[in-house]
Amino acid sequence: MACSAEPTGSQFTTSEFKYHPFNSPDAIRMLQLLAGEAGDPIHIRLSHHPLTDLPKCEALSYTWGDEDRKQDIICAGKILKATPNLLEVLRRLRHRMLESEHSGQTGLLWIDAICINQDDLAERRQQVELMTDVYKNAKRVLVWIGEQPATSTGTFDTIHLLDQTCRALKVEENENVDEMNSVPDTTVLTNGVWLEQLPEDPVWPSVLDVLASRTYFTRLWTVQEVALSDESKTQVLCGSKSCPWLVFYNAVVLVQSCRVLRQTIAADKLAYLIRVVNLRSMQSVLRDNALSMFNCVARTEEQQSQVKVTRDRVFALLGMFLDHTQKSLSLLNYKTPVTEIFQTATAVMALE
Q1: What is the pLDDT of residues 35-81, one digit of tens each?
Q2: Distance, CA of 292 to CA of 31 (rounded, Å)
Q3: Distance of CA 241 to the CA centre of its chain
Q4: Which of 188, 199, 303, 314 has a CA 20 to 30 Å removed from the CA of 121?
Q5: What is the DSSP string of 257-298?
Q6: Facing residues of 59 across strands?
Q7: What is the pLDDT of residue 9?
Q8: CA dist 213 to 154, 201, 252, 276, Å?
Q9: Directed axis angle between helix 204-212 and helix 267-286, to 10°?
Q10: CB neighbours of 239 closer than 8 A, spacing ≥ 6?
Q11: Cβ neighbour number for residue 178 with a 10 Å cutoff
C-alpha cells in the first residue's frame, strides 16, 4: 500500500505541479497512466511507496533524447513538463497497458524523469542510490528503444525466427567480431528460409534498423538499467511491438555470428551488436556479483557509451559498483565540482 500520495484530480489548470518531498529515505514515487484516447492529453497520478512495493511496478528504461522539458502532461490536475521522447513513450504505454489490463488506469510504473523531482538536486542524488533496487526488483523492466520502422510488417516475426535458430544451434556470444563462432550461411530458419536469403528479403532493412541502429544502446545511463534487471523479466518495446530481452539478444548474436548477415551491416553499425552482447555479459555477471569501478568504466569506455553531463560517467554506473565503492562515493552529489568527483573516483578505483 502506498505510504502517501500526491493529490489527484481529473480537471486541470495551467498551474505548475509541485512535488511532495519524501518522508522516508527508502521511499520512491510510482505513477499510473489514466485512460484516454490517442489524441488526449496524458494524465497521470503519482504516489509514494516503500521499496518493498517494487514487485508491483514496471520500471522504464529509455533515452531522454531532447532534454528540453517542453511537453505538457497532467498530474493531479496540474501541468508537469516532460521531454518529447517521454511523451511519445507514455502515449505508447497508455495504449499498450490499457489494452492488456482492460481497466481505466494502468498498473504502477517507475520512470526516472517523472518519479524523481529533477529540479531537486539533493533528491536526485538520493534517488539515484535507489536505482539498483528499482531495476533489480521491479515486476518487469521495459526497454523502450524507440518507434518501429516505417515498413515494419514482419520485422518482429523475423527477430523471433532468428532467436529460435540461435537457441536451436546453441550459438555462443562473443564480443570480438573476428573471433566469433561462424554460423553457416545455408542454415535454415524454422520457416524454411536460408540465412543467406534473408538479406534479399524486403523485411531485412527493418530488422537491422531494430537490432543494429538504435541510439538507446549508445547511452551510458541505460547500461546499468539493463545490466541490473532480471533477464527473464525484461521486455524490449519498439513502437507497438515488443519481445523478451533474451529474444532480442539471441537475434543479435545470430546476426553477429553469420558472415552473410554480418556483411549487410555497415562497419560503424557493428558496434551496436557488440554493445548488446556486452550488456548481456554484464547482466550475467551482476546476477551474482557487483563489478569493480575499473571494470565498469573500462567496459563502457571501450563501447564509447555516451553521456550529456560529464559527472554522469560516475553516477550513471553507481548501482553496479561494489558496496564499499558505493559507500566511498556516498558524499558526492550533483553540486560537487566535476574535478572533485573524478579525483575521488580515481582514488577509490586505485584502492579496489
Answers
A1: 888 788 999 999 999 999 999 999 999 998 777 788 899 998 999 99
A2: 33
A3: 16
A4: 303
A5: H-HHHHTTS-HHHHHHHHHHHHHHHHHHHHTT--B-HHHHHH
A6: 110, 141
A7: 46
A8: 18, 19, 12, 11
A9: 50
A10: 92, 146, 147, 148, 152
A11: 5
Question: What does the pLDDT look like over 153-185, one tens digit per residue?
Answer: 899 999 999 999 998 888 876 555 454 557 776
pTM given for the model: 0.89
Q: Which residue has the cell 538479406?
A: 199
Q: Tell me, what's the pLDDT at 142? A: 96
Of 243, 245, 272, 268, residue with least CA distance to 256: 272
C-alpha grid cell, residue 57 = 511496478
> Helix, strand or coil for residue 334?
coil
108 φ/ψ sector (left φ>0, alpha ψ -120 to 50, else beta): beta
pLDDT digits (tens, 9 = 90+) for 260-284: 898 899 888 888 998 999 899 889 8
Q: Name the amino acid, one letter, at 140.
A: R
- CA–CA distance, 115 with 126 (Å, rounded to integer): 13
- pLDDT number for residue 180: 54
CB atoms within 10 A of CB 277: 19
Gap between the Cα atoms of 307 and 194, Å rounded: 40
**C-alpha cell at position 298:** 573500462
What length is written for the chain? 352
**Rounded CA gap, 177 and 174, in Å?**
7
Mean pLDDT of 83-109: 77
- SS3 label, residue 342: helix
Least Cα distance to 123 among 264, 334, 285, 299 occurs for 334
Label the pairing between strands 43-50 and 108-110: unpaired
Residue 105, pLDDT above cutoff 80:
no
